[in-house]
Automatic annotation (TrEMBL):
PROSITE patterns: HEXAPEP_TRANSFERASES. Residues 6-60 form the Maltose/galactoside acetyltransferase domain. InterPro entries: Hexapep (IPR001451), Hexapep_transf_CS (IPR018357), Hexapeptide_acetyltransf (IPR051159), Mac_dom (IPR024688), Trimer_LpxA-like_sf (IPR011004). It comes from Sphingomonas populi. GO terms for molecular function: acetyltransferase activity; O-acyltransferase activity. The keyword Transcription does not apply. PANTHER family: ACETYLTRANSFERASE C18B11.09C-RELATED (PTHR23416:SF23), SIALIC ACID SYNTHASE-RELATED (PTHR23416). Belongs to the transferase hexapeptide repeat family. It holds the Pfam family Hexapep. This is Nodulation protein L. GO terms for cellular component: cytosol. Acetyltransferase implicated in the O-acetylation of Nod factors. Keywords: Acyltransferase, Nodulation, Repeat, Transferase.
Amino acid sequence: MSMTQKQKMLAGELYIADDPELVADAARAAAWMDRYNAASAASAADRYAMLVEGLGHVGGGVVVRSPFHCDYGYNVHLEDGVFLNFGCIVLDVVAVRIGTGTLIGPGVQILTAEHPRDAAVRSQKLEYGRSVTIGRNVWIGAGALILPGVSIGDDAIIGAGSVVTCDVAPNTTVVGNPASPVK
């Protein structure tokens, strides 16, 4: 039995993003984001309930400031006490897991979507995803860019504006483009 495009996407295999099932999922996520982003004056309890409705997992005490944008929402997993500041973008074609107590600054982009390096394959409108895992008690500064497949260890710090292209060890501070450890 062949896999659906959604099953391929979730497995990190090449898939076609304009598949009708994925287009419908993205439309549902867009409608949810419109409601969530328009509800910035709603109570904390109402906004939390909306997060639970739209995301894959939301731990206790999670705060996501509007505007927030994602592809599907169901692949975003936020543990207890996660804070996402204004303007975060999460391209969640596969899992994005953010650990307890992690703080994410404004304008941060977390990307899982990839495109084939081979031009002939890329011309077929195929793409794939690589999961991103961010540990607990991580601080990611404003405007940082976390690229597909990256894991960030517990207690790490990502400097503002950094472009994280590879894994970051626990208790490590990285800055720059590409991000590298501060000595």
